[in-house]
Amino acid sequence: MDAGWDMVWDVRDVVTAVLVLLAALMCFAAGVGLIRFPDVLSRLHAATKPQILGLMAIVADVAVTNFSLGTLTLAVAIVFFQSLTAPVSAHLVGRAAYRTDHFRRDILVVDELTPDAPRNVT
Length: 122
Description:
Belongs to the CPA3 antiporters (TC 2.A.63) subunit G family. InterPro entries: PhaG_MnhG_YufB. It comes from Herbiconiux moechotypicola. This protein is mainly alpha-helical. It has one domain (about 1-105). The chain is built from 3 helices and no strands. The protein has helices at about 1-35, 40-65, 70-100. Helix 2 (about 40-65) packs antiparallel against helix 3 (about 70-100).
């Protein structure tokens, strides 16, 4: 019977290792994107997408490692609220950068905001 429980813990350890490595890779990708990308809009993309995916991997790891109803409820709440706040805050920062002309127009493929958002250059 002990061999069966050892197998369960081995699978959990492998899942934990994979999820933590995935989260570390996402954090590394976000850091490289923040350093390498040229303007605010590109850096926002690099900061928000891998960040939420890395957080989801870590939260999934915690839920797998310490499986209980309380942990699962907290994990769902963390992912839900982070999924709401990160894109909204990135959108607001991007909109402010656009309105104050703190981005590079030459790398913008399509500019759909020109008629809608007057820029306040201060």
